[in-house]
Amino acid sequence: xxxRWNDESLRLRITPGELDSLTAGRAISQQIGGWQVTLAPxxxxxxxxxxxxxxxxxxxxxxxxxxxxxxxxxxxxxDAQPRLLVEKDFPCRPPHSADxxxx
Length: 103
Prior knowledge:
This protein is mostly beta strands. It has two helices and eight strands, in the order ββαββββαββ. A hairpin with a 5-residue loop joins β7 and β8.
């Protein structure tokens, strides 16, 4: 899961395998420095709960079903503070440069 956080939004980009985990009812997490972000299915709606340096982003089951739709890029909570964006991470096209350290 890729995490981008600024003053206005928290954006999570998930891989196809992570989407499979969510559709199977399993949470996914990413640790960055001293904090952790967890994306957890089964909540009432797309929302964030903070516990110190840990953020848990809850998705409803209907959010997960919608996110799994082939033509949907993501789901959004624009009225949340910060705004929450959960999006599918698509492969780069064209492929990465040979100098890029990413697979």
